[in-house]
Amino acid sequence: MTNSPDPASPGPRRSGDRLLHVALALFGIGILAVIGIFLTPIVSDSEPGLWLYCLAMLAPVGFLLALVFALWSGRRVR
Fold it and tell me: Distance of alpha carbon 28 from its chain centroid, rounded?
């Protein structure tokens, strides 16, 4: 019996996978904040708070991190 890993089992998680999860979470939070900015005047007669605008800035940050992940994971291994 050898100690070779099962080919069907996933390998160890790379540190870059965590970058993708963080990027998707930041992008999702940013998009939800943008939706909240548009829904706030419809639901109530008040204006959206500053914190909602600050959260909305996470969408482009998450998008840039996802681009970094795509470029970093797509490079050739020598």
Answer: 6
User: CA-to-CA distance for 54 and 38, rounded, in angstroms?
Assistant: 14
Please check whether residue 20 is in contact with residue 64, taking contact to mean a CB–CB distance below 8 angstroms: no
7: which DSSP letter?
Answer: T
Helix (H) / strand (E) containing 6: none
> For residue range 13-40, what is the model confidence (pLDDT) as tens digits?
566 689 999 999 999 999 999 999 999 9
Other CB atoms within 10 Å distance of the CB of residue 25 = 13
Residue 78 has a pLDDT of 59
